[in-house]
Amino acid sequence: MVVTFTSAYLIDKTKGTVWLRRTAYFLSILPQASVAVINMDDAGDAAPAAAMCMLIVFANVIVRSLAELVSRRFKRKTQGWRAR
Q1: Are 10 and 21 in contact (CB under 8 A)?
Q2: Phi and psi for 71 in degrees, rounded to 5?
């Protein structure tokens, strides 16, 4: 819920940066996609529901990997004094 409202705020306030708006839009519709999967499964559409679940998992893996890379790079720059 917090992600949805934060993403909606970012969509509204970041009119100059297209990539940030698209990312925020994706994050705001992701919780709705998980609810859609449950509705599809209840309706008997198991194969499309499974495919949508895999897309959600792949999207989460990609975003998490990118976040880890950015975090690692940021730590390397800011915590360099610890390596000495």
Answers
A1: yes
A2: -65, -45
84 is a domain residue? no
Domain that holds residue 20: 2-78
Is 52 inside any structural domain?
Answer: yes
Cβ 21 vs Cβ 15: under 8 Å: yes
Residues 10 and 20 sit within 8 Å (Cβ to Cβ): yes
Q: Give me the number of domains the chain comprises.
A: 1
User: What is the rounded distance in angstroms from the CA atom of residue 61 to the CA atom of residue 59?
Assistant: 5
The pLDDT tens digits of the residues spanning 52-80 come to 888 888 887 888 888 889 888 888 888 77
Full-prediction pTM beyond 0.85? no
Which amino acid appears at position 77 of this protein?
K
